[in-house]
Known about the structure:
Layout: H1 3-17, H2 39-47, E1 57-61, H3 67-75, E2 80-85, H4 88-101, E3 106-110, E4 123-129, H5 138-147, E5 149-158, H6 166-184
The structure holds S-adenosylmethionine (SAM).
Amino acid sequence: MSDSQTISAAVAKLYNTYPFPPEPLLDEPPPGYNWRWNWLAAYNFCTGQKPQKQDIRILDAGCGTGVGTQYLVHLNPTASVVGIDLSAGALEVAQECCKRSGAKRVEFHHLSLYDVEQLSGEFDFINCVGVLHHLPDPIRGIQALAKKLAPGGLMHIFVYGELGRWEIQLMQKAIASRSALCAERPPSK
Ligand SMILES: C[S@@+](CC[C@H](N)C(=O)[O-])C[C@H]1O[C@@H](n2cnc3c(N)ncnc32)[C@H](O)[C@@H]1O
């Protein structure tokens, strides 16, 4: 196995064990609104114009448990949505999440971002939230996505930032040093 395959296998194992996000499944459309998942609003924000079409194709790349995917379906009522993920466990939850919330114009594929060319056609809107930093080669990942973007399309990308994760990193250090202390000390009786 190459280093890259070892990392991807470890990432898939992590998200099979802890599918993310671990949100409760609802039997109705999700209650919130995020303009970045609405084609009309996002297109207008990026270009200052109204998009020429609404019957677009959306790709949710690294969809996890489908919480964002169901928003993409419900907030874009004439779009068709495709979700892909490396984790079969997360995809199982995503299918159930969309089924229960009544998100019908969606299909899922067990596929890495690296292999996205296996999907047919291009996408007008590619959503990739919290995923690229997990790839052994994020540049290769974003290049693979870019090849599937239709002319004039939009990509919504979110990656972890050093500053934004400052508190989490502090907590990780604290847990690591506590674990090291526990390993040094024999358990008390
Ligand atoms: C932090 S979760 C984000 C889930 C979802 N996008 C969200 O924002 O709720 C990261 C997801 O990326 C997936 N992932 C990681 N590497 C991937 C790859 N190479 N191809 C496809 N999915 C990948 C993981 O399996 C996991 O479900």
